[in-house]
Amino acid sequence: MTAALIAALSTACAIWLWTGPSTPAIRLHTLLTATHRRLPWHHLLRTSLTRPSSTRRADAWRRACIELCQSLSAELAAGRTPGEALTRAITAVDFPDPEALRPALAAARDGGDVSAALTAAAPAQGGEGLRRLAACWDVSVTAGAGMSALVERVAGTLRAAQVHRQEVAAQLAGPRTTARMLAALPALGLLMAGALNMHPLSFLFGTFPGLLCLLSGTALDACGLWWTHRMATKAQS
């Protein structure tokens, strides 16, 4: 009964490692970084769990910035003033955090410093479009350049960058899946050994050489996942 339970748990773990998200690599990377900084354990857990959501939030900001530039370009092409065009464009776009754009909206309506408001509203991750739009606003105000042409060029650059990120993410999906599959092979090996009545768990947990093999194998497996995640992250950035 115990052997069957252990085999079932091993199978579940193998399936999770194979098909689940790449949280082991993310948590290990967070653990190593935070250990170097001597952060508390509860902060490590919270950071590891919110890392994927922060990535999705950055993607949402990038898409919203592209929509903002496209909408602003269309409003300027319709003959509206830059302030009125920006006001209508901000209102029409669904931002992840609409409250962050309220100062920029007020500056556009009242003739304030729109560039500074856009720069302040831009998040650290995903706010590249707002910062470029702020630079366009500065150039248009100081040099008198055509705002519509600048915004259209920024929109094209943002769209190209978004397509490039999607292509890189699609190309990295294969290596990440392969890394998770290879990480699951030791668990599958234990399952096969248990099915052959070789008692691998007794060796791993009941003897000193087995314990050394278990610790070293687990460490190497985790390091492999972390290294693959690190290479994929650098390639994607």
Automatic annotation (TrEMBL):
This is Type II secretion system F family protein. PANTHER family: CONSERVED TRANSMEMBRANE PROTEIN-RELATED, INTEGRAL MEMBRANE PROTEIN-RELATED. The keyword Transmembrane helix applies. It is found in: Cell membrane. It is a multi-pass membrane protein. Coiled coil: none annotated. The keyword Aminoacyl-tRNA synthetase does not apply. Its main location: membrane. Keywords: Cell membrane, Membrane, Transmembrane, Transmembrane helix. Residues 69-192 form the Type II secretion system protein GspF domain. The chain crosses the membrane at residues 203-227. Signal peptide: none annotated. It comes from Nonomuraea spiralis.
